[in-house]
Design goal:
Elements (H helix, E strand, L loop, with lengths): L11 H14 L7 H11 L13 H21 L7 E2 L2 E2 L17 H20 L6 H8 L3 H7 L3 H37 L5
Antiparallel strand pairs: 1-2
Helix pairs in contact: 4-5, 4-7
């Protein structure tokens, strides 16, 4: 392997060990250049050449490891409870409280979304989840399929948003119950004369 004689002193500490390892391995790399050339020539003659051509066991090992890491990362984050990002934010993201809206009146889109989710909640009892269609959800919500697709990209997205809404509501109910419980306890202590 031929290297340029010029180097930048600031990078020497980082790149010197890398350069030395490459120089040491030069000429001893895995693979057969003639076979690689034959493979490249061969793919030029096939009707559908591969979009990604990985040549050699070392390259295949590195690519497989990188793809496995990406797949694991995707699987780890797949079960997020948010419906989807729409218009730059999610309708059910933590920290957004529907009751603290800037508007006193409810938006038409919010009313439509609630109707869709209410229908998604009721329909499985009658039809079952698998038999339920986007058309059924739209009809039950009193909107067109196009309007439903404006809010949600699929039946699965609508049901995921329903689950997120249910979880959010149960968390709020639990907090309200705890607050009410502590208030009742406080009044009981006052009435018992234990505190003033």
């Amino acid at each position: 392997m031929t290297r340029a004689a010029q180097s930048i002193d600031d990078y020497d500490e980082l790149f010197t060990p890398i350069r030395e390892a490459r120089q040491k391995a030069s000429g001893d790399q895995l693979g057969n250049p003639a076979k690689a050339g034959d493979a490249v020539v061969h793919i030029t003659s096939v009707e559908q050449p591969p979009a990604h051509l990985v040549l050699g066991s070392d390259a295949l090992r590195l690519v497989t490891a990188a793809r496995t890491a990406v797949d694991e990362d995707i699987r780890a984050w797949a079960p997020l409870p948010y419906d989807r990002l729409r218009r730059g934010r999610s309708a059910l993201m933590p920290g957004r409280h529907p009751a603290r809206s800037r508007r006193a009146t409810e938006r038409k889109g919010d009313v439509r979304e609630r109707a869709i989710l209410d229908t998604c909640e009721a329909l499985p009892a009658y039809k079952g989840y698998d038999a339920m269609t986007v058309g059924d959800i739209a009809q039950g919500a009193g909107i067109t399929r196009g309007a439903l697709y404006f809010c949600f990209g699929s039946k699965q997205e609508a049901v995921t948003a329903l689950v997120a809404r249910t979880v959010h509501a149960s968390q709020n109910s639990r907090a309200e119950l705890q607050e009410a419980s502590s208030t009742c306890e406080h009044f009981w202590l006052i009435s018992a004369g234990l505190i003033t």
